[in-house]
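quick one before i forget lol
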Amino acid sequence: MTDDERDLAAFLCGELGAKLLLTDVATAGEPKVADDPLSALPSELPTAATYGSKEVRSLTFWLPEIGPVKTLGNAPPATNPRDRVARLLTEDAAAEQFADVIDFERTPVLTLTRSHWHAQNRLSPGNLSTLQAISPEVKRQYSRALRWLKKRGVKMDPFAHCAEVRDRRPKQLGPLWVWAQPNAKALVERGIEIWPWNA
């Protein structure tokens, strides 16, 4: 929930020294960051994705103490077909701003894919992630953030909270377990369902 996002942002920016990026473009190598990250957060969760939607679906937190923002303008050549296609699509979409687009594979960031409303009474869980190839320091900060989330969260079986798929629960949940944060947990206790296939 948005209150849980605020708590996470306060932890990331306060304890880890992260900066909330306001855009994925760094003008002349300088990223645009929120002076007050808590007031810059969206006030509502997004709905299910639709073509052309402008809703904020992810939040990116740069870790400046670990390293600078790097852009695609000075990125090494893509080494595999998937990366080449991704680079071409980004170049096409960004046009003259391509050289200033932040290269998240080389910039130390943590990314929160936000929870969203899968349906009116059903929430798809969010996820905190990082690109594992960046550096051991980023991995350490990521692990620290996960420990913080788990400490204040409650582990839930999402299939127990979604009537539509309750009978399709796998024997082993593995990565499908949900760590519900306090405000999300309160909603689930009041009857909001968890969409488990996004867990």
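fyi The longest helix spans residues 136-152.
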